[in-house]
Write a structure and sequence with these properties.
- The complex is a heterodimer of chains A (375) and B (291).
- With 375 residues, chain A is of the alpha+beta class.
- Chain A contains 8 helices and 20 strands.
- A 6-stranded mixed beta sheet of chain A has the order 6-7-8-3-9-10, sandwiched between helices.
- With 291 residues, chain B is an all-alpha fold.
- Chain B has a two-stranded antiparallel sheet with strand order 1-2.
- In chain B, a hairpin with a 6-residue loop joins strand 1 and strand 2.
- Classes of the chains: A alpha+beta (375), B mainly alpha (291).
- Chains A and B meet through strand 6 and helix 2 of A and helix 9 and helix 10 of B.
């Protein structure tokens, strides 16, 4: 049976739930969002990823209705939402600070939005109970926000934002205040809840691991522009620029001059005394000029002797070893060239490791391991 | 031990400067007027046994026979309540505006609120005489504007007393309200709006309840001194402005009737303390019920 993969962005017949069309937002002379076009589809878990000040929060606040675009058009389910105040949008937001009302109980916090709609008492009670169950907060319904833990507050904020069954839920750094272990658990919980409710989630985060874990697609942003929008694996394996490659995870960037060797095969000369490196690219790169090879440390193998029939093999000296428990990262200084990071799984105990500081080693990788980038 | 000293010091202070004087005043209120120095009898030098034997509640009974006293208490309560509400009505918007002002302005705004304290309270109240008098600045200004044809009689009326109290105690109202609004997380209002509130509804459902501790503190800080206020009604008020502070002053200094003056003071204190204690117990219960 063919698996039905969720990928509405590849289906030209699908209409997006949210559409940013050439949106620009300026605050005085500062341009927060610069001519941005972006589609987000229904039921997506979409992540806006970027360093602080890249405009991701502004983008989210425009969706919530707290800011209006200076130029361009934002539409939600086909309708232009410019000028619609936040209290009339089918969009709810989970705030970074959670913004729980301190004078109201957990129950009343969750019921807050429902009461504003003027729903019947029983209906409200039913919905709040449902939300409490979804977020496993039944026991805490009568407590005040300052009587529960950070993780519980996070769940209350989520329950409150989901209670009105919005078309779109915005999450502003939802897990930023939690410690690492709780954050990882909560990431899966978030995905679970997103799947159960079928709500479209847009999450803003600066934590690339978080974005990679939860999102169906990620938009990497920088200085008000979207640099790349793709699924987590494409972002990681096939970044479209040095910026994206560098922002997501650990990477070696090797810069050199490019020559075409054959169909889809290129050579990259990174230093005078190093033979050109082989790399493939399906994209049509102009034959000559400067290019960058982005290659992940875990795709580089380290050897004590010169490897046979490797596409690329370079000799060097171990400069540093970072022991991470499950992995070790070796910093290898290439003769007359750059320092390359290679990562190996520690499948043996540390005492049995046969490579140590100052050792002469070889690093190798295949021609398909890296991504050739022009910018 | 250290902790005991830490707690003990402020309580010793209260004991020495509040409870002991209160006991002395209470003792005087139980004595009788006499032509002596000090002007009451019995005194400690008569011997303890004699002193206690001579104590009676005659003065308390006396206060109920002359309707001047209870009228003065009632009128003081009325003036204190109304001026507290007026101060709240003026002070809340100021505190709210301060709370929403850009961060860079806040320190300046705060200084401006406190600035009047740098001039003597008495001088500021006297200055109001110049403003409120028949030929005062306010009347001249209103005449010049053409709003009124005849100068208004403001000075020596209850209106002048209200103006004086609101003006004097405004900072005591603004500061606690501002403190509670300043602590409020701005994203709470955004969250309320996001959940379907209008701006006004968000104010009533979020800002107002969260600023309530500040409002209550401010009201106490204004109400308590306003109730016993003496200077403002004597300078700005008229002969018909009846306030207990004035009665107390007259009993003490004009009549030199220390026992009756002490009785007035003790009852004034009870009027102030009983509602506060009841209120605090109620708050305590609410907090406990919430947990």
């Amino acid at each position: 049976m063919a698996q039905n993969v969720f990928a509405p962005w590849n289906d030209p017949a699908e209409t997006p739930l949210i559409r940013f069309e050439q949106v620009t937002k300026r605050f005085g002379s500062f341009t927060a969002i610069d001519d941005l076009t972006l589609d987000i589809f229904e039921r997506e878990f979409f992540a806006l990823l970027g360093p602080s000040g890249c405009g991701k929060t502004t983008l989210m606040r425009m969706l919530a209705g707290f800011e209006d675009p200076t130029e361009g058009r934002i539409s939600l389910a086909g309708q232009d939402i410019a000028g619609v105040p936040p209290n009339q949008r089918a969009v709810n937001m989970m705030f970074q600070s959670y913004a729980l009302f301190p004078h109201l109980s957990i129950w009343d916090n969750i019921a807050f939005g429902l009461r504003r709609e003027g729903r019947a008492r029983e209906q409200i009670a039913e919905r709040v109970t449902e939300m409490l169950k979804l977020t496993r907060l039944e026991k805490f319904a009568s407590r005040k926000p300052d009587q529960i833990s950070g993780g519980q507050k996070q769940r209350v904020a989520l329950a409150r934002a989901l209670a009105k069954a919005p078309k779109l839920l915005l999450l502003d750094e939802p897990l930023g205040a939690l410690d690492k272990k709780l954050r990882q658990e909560t990431q899966f919980e978030l995905m679970d809840i997103q799947e159960k409710t079928g709500t479209t989630f847009v999450i803003v985060t600066h934590d690339q691991e978080e974005a990679m874990t939860v999102a169906s697609r990620i938009a990497v942003m920088d200085e008000g522009k979207v640099i790349q929008v793709a699924t987590p694996d494409r972002i990681y394996e096939a970044p479209n620029s040095v910026y994206v490659a560098d922002f997501i995870g650990d990477v070696n960037i090797l810069t050199g001059s490019l020559t075409t060797l054959g169909p889809d095969l290129y050579g990259l000369a990174i230093a005078e005394n190093i033979a050109p490196l082989f790399a493939t690219s399906t994209e049509d790169l102009t034959a000559r000029g400067t290019a960058h090879l982005a290659i992940r440390p875990e795709k580089i193998t380290i050897h004590t002797e010169k490897p046979q029939d490797a596409d690329n093999a370079l000799e060097g000296r171990v400069l540093d070893i970072a022991y991470l428990g499950n992995l070790s990262t070796y910093h290898v200084e290439i003769k007359g060239g750059p320092v390359i990071k290679a990562q190996m799984a520690n499948t043996r105990r540390l005492s049995r490791r046969d490579i140590t500081w100052e050792d002469k080693v070889w690093v190798s990788w295949t021609k398909t391991a890296g991504a050739l980038l022009k910018q | 031990m250290k902790r005991f000293i830490l707690i003990g010091v402020p309580y010793l202070w209260l004991l020495a400067l509040f409870f002991v004087p209160f006991l002395i005043v209470f003792k005087v209120s139980l004595s009788d007027y006499a032509l002596s120095i000090p002007p009451y009898t019995p005194q400690m030098k008569d011997g303890l046994a004699e002193m206690f034997a001579a104590f009676d509640f005659e003065n308390y009974v006396f206060l109920t026979t002359d309707d001047l006293y209870w009228k003065a208490y009632l009128s003081s309560l009325k003036i204190a309540v109304i001026s507290t509400l007026l101060t709240l009505a003026v002070g809340y918007p100021i505190a709210y505006a301060m709370g929403r002002a850009p961060d860079a302005w806040r320190a300046t705004l705060m200084t401006l609120v406190i600035l009047p304290f740098w001039t003597s309270f008495l001088i500021r109240v006297y200055a109001w005489m110049g403003i409120l008098a028949k030929e005062g600045f306010l009347n001249q200004f209103l005449l010049w504007l053409g709003v009124i044809g005849e100068p208004l009689t403001l000075l020596n009326t209850n209106t002048a007393v209200y103006i004086g109290i609101v003006y004097t105690y405004l900072p005591f109202m603004i500061l606690p309200i501002y403190a509670s609004l300043d602590r409020m997380d701005g994203s709470l209002l955004e969250a309320a709006e996001d959940l379907g509130c209008s701006r006004l509804a968000a104010f009533w459902l979020i800002t107002w309840p969260l600023s309530r501790p500040g409002v209550i503190a401010g009201c106490f800080l204004v109400f308590i001194p306003a109730l016993g206020e003496f200077v403002i009604p004597s300078i700005l008020g008229g002969s018909d402005t009846l306030m207990i502070g004035k009665v107390l002053f007259e009993e003490f200094f004009s009549n030199r009737d220390w026992p009756v003056a002490s009785t007035v003071a003790v009852i004034l204190l009870l009027i102030l303390i009983i509602p506060i204690v009841l209120f605090q117990r109620n708050q305590q219960k609410q907090v406990e019920a919430g947990q």
